[in-house]
Design a protein that fits this description.
single chain; mainly alpha; 19 helices; 0% strand
Length: 467
C-alpha cells in the first residue's frame, strides 16, 4: 500500500493552516447542526409550550445517546490517529473494524431504551398528561431510530482520524438540511404528508441522521485509503476495545454528566414553573450556536495532537494547543456578547410568551457569563483526551456539574427567586477554569514536555551503533 507510506499532512503542514483546514469544515457543519437543533424547537414551539417542554425534558436521554456515540468515537479517534502516527497500519485497520462493532452494540442498547424506558423516565419529571404524551411520541422514535446517529458519528470520526475532515462537512450538512426541510413538512403536514406533530420532529431528525450515516460510510469506502471496512472482517478484540475506552470512557462520563445535570436542573426549575424548564431547553438550543463551533474546532484539533504525539513532534503539539485556545476563547466572547445584547429577540424565535421572556432574559444574561471561561476549559478537556488522559476531563466535568453547579443551583433555589438559580452556571465555570489550568500544567510536565524524547534516544542509539 504505497499511498499510505507517505507522510500524513497532520505531521508536516504548517500548524495554523492545518488546524483551520481540519476544523473549519467541521465548524461549518456543526453550525448547520446547531441550526437544525434550533429549527426543530422553533417549529415544536408553534404546537404549544407543553410540546416545547416535552422536547426539553427529553434532552437528558438524547444527550446520553450523544455521550455514548461521541465518547466511543473520541476513543477511536485518538487511538486511530496515534496508531497512524506510529505507522502501524495493520493495527489501525483493526481499530476501525472494532469501531463499527461498537456502534452496532450501542444502537441495540438505545433501541431497548426506546421500547421500555421512555414513559418511566418522563414520569420521574412530570405528571402532566399532555407533556407525557408529547414526550412519549418524541423520545420513543428518537431512541428506536438512533442507528443513524451512532453510525454517522463513528464513520465521521474515521474520516477525521485520517485527516479527511472535508467530507464530514457534507455528511453533517446533508443530514441537517434534510432535517430542516422535513421538520415543517412532517410536523404540520404538507401535501401528501400527514400532520404528525411532535412525532414529525422526531422522524425528521432520524431521517437526517440516517442519510448522514449513509454518506459517511460511502465517503470512507470511496476516499479513505488508510482503512477499508469489510463486514466479514469485523472481529471484536478485547485489547483494542479496552484501549478505545481508556480514552473514550472518561469522555462518555463527561458528556453523560451533562444529562444528569440537565435532569437535576429540570427538577429544580419545574418546581417554580414549567415555563422555566422550557426556558432552560431554549437556552441549550441557543448555546449550541456558540459551543458547536468550538466542538468542531476540537474535533479538528484532537487527531492533530494525537498524530503528532505518536510521531514525537512536541513543538507542533504545543503550537496547536495555543492556537486552539485562542480561537475557542474568541468564539465564546462573540457568543457572550450576543446573549447580553439581544436575549429577548433570541427568545422570540421560539414564540416566547411575556412570562417566558421575563424569565428567559435574565437567564440568558446570567448563564452566558460562563462563556468567558468555557472556551479555555473545553479545549483543555480535548487536549487531555488526545494525550490519553481523559480522566482529567472527567474530574473537571464532575466537579463543575455535579459537585458545584447542581448543589449551588439547589441552594439558590431555596431563596425562592428563580433569577438566583442561573448564577450557579458562572460560579461552576470558575471552578472548572481553575481545575483545567492545574491539570494542563500537570499534563505538560508529565507528557507534553517529554514528547519525542524516546524517539531521540532511539535515533542516538542507532547513530552510535552505526559508528
Amino acid at each position: 500500500m504505497e499511498q499510505v507510506q507517505k507522510e500524513n499532512k497532520m505531521g508536516v503542514m504548517p500548524e495554523n493552516k492545518l488546524l483551520l483546514s481540519m476544523s473549519l469544515p467541521m465548524m461549518v457543519s456543526m453550525l448547520v447542526q446547531a441550526l437544525y437543533n434550533v429549527v426543530d424547537s422553533v417549529f415544536v414551539s408553534r404546537i404549544s409550550e407543553d410540546a416545547l417542554t416535552a422536547v426539553s425534558l427529553a434532552f437528558p436521554v438524547q444527550n446520553f445517546m450523544i455521550a455514548i456515540s461521541v465518547g466511543t468515537a473520541v476513543g477511536v479517534n485518538a487511538l486511530l490517529s496515534k496508531t497512524l502516527g506510529e505507522k502501524d497500519y495493520k493495527k489501525a485497520q483493526k481499530v476501525a473494524d472494532n469501531a463499527v462493532f461498537l456502534s452496532a452494540v450501542c444502537y441495540c442498547i438505545f433501541f431497548l431504551i426506546g421500547i421500555f424506558a421512555v414513559v418511566p423516565f418522563y414520569l420521574t419529571q412530570t405528571k402532566d398528561a399532555e407533556i407525557l404524551e408529547f414526550g412519549k411520541q418524541y423520545l420513543t422514535i428518537i431512541c428506536i431510530g438512533s442507528i443513524g446517529i451512532f453510525f454517522q458519528t463513528m464513520f465521521e470520526r474515521l474520516l477525521q482520524s485520517t485527516g479527511k475532515t472535508f467530507f464530514t462537512m457534507f455528511t453533517q450538512g446533508a443530514g441537517a438540511i434534510i432535517n430542516i426541510i422535513l421538520d415543517p413538512v412532517l410536523i404540520f403536514g404538507v401535501g401528501i404528508f400527514p400532520e404528525m406533530g411532535v412525532a414529525g420532529a422526531a422522524v425528521a431528525t432520524i431521517i437526517g441522521q440516517i442519510v448522514a450515516a449513509i454518506l459517511a460510510i460511502f465517503f470512507n469506502a470511496k476516499h479513505n485509503e488508510y482503512i477499508k471496512i469489510s463486514v466479514k472482517n469485523i472481529r471484536p478484540k478485547a485489547q483494542i476495545i479496552k484501549q478505545i475506552y481508556i480514552v473514550g470512557a472518561p469522555s462518555i462520563v463527561v458528556q453523560a454528566i451533562g444529562s444528569v445535570m440537565v435532569y437535576g436542573m429540570n427538577l429544580i426549575l419545574i418546581a417554580f414553573t414549567s415555563t422555566a424548564t422550557a426556558v432552560f431547553g431554549v437556552y441549550f438550543k441557543l448555546q449550541s450556536f456558540v459551543f458547536m463551533p468550538v466542538f468542531g474546532l476540537n474535533n479538528g484539533m484532537v487527531p492533530i495532537i494525537a498524530y503528532n504525539y505518536g510521531a514525537g513532534k512536541k513543538e507542533r503539539v504545543i503550537k496547536i494547543i495555543k492556537l486552539s485556545i485562542m480561537y475557542a476563547v474568541a468564539i465564546m466572547v462573540v457568543g457572550f456578547a450576543l446573549m447580553q445584547m439581544i436575549p429577548d429577540k433570541l427568545l422570540l424565535l421560539f414564540d416566547a410568551s411575556e412570562t417566558m421572556i421575563s424569565i428567559g432574559v435574565p437567564a440568558l444574561r446570567s448563564i452566558s457569563t460562563s462563556f468567558l471561561f468555557a472556551g479555555f476549559c473545553i479545549v483543555c478537556g480535548s487536549v487531555f483526551q488526545a494525550l490519553g488522559n481523559g480522566v482529567y476531563s472527567m474530574v473537571v466535568s464532575i466537579t463543575r456539574q455535579l459537585v458545584v453547579l447542581l448543589p449551588v443551583a439547589y441552594l439558590l433555589s431555596k431563596i425562592g427567586e428563580i433569577n438566583y438559580v442561573w448564577l450557579a452556571f458562572p460560579v461552576a465555570e470558575v471552578f472548572s477554569l481553575t481545575l483545567s489550568a492545574v491539570f494542563l500544567v500537570r499534563i505538560y510536565r508529565k507528557i507534553i514536555k517529554h514528547i519525542g524524547e524516546e524517539k531521540n534516544v532511539s535515533m542516538q542509539n542507532n547513530a552510535n551503533n552505526a559508528e
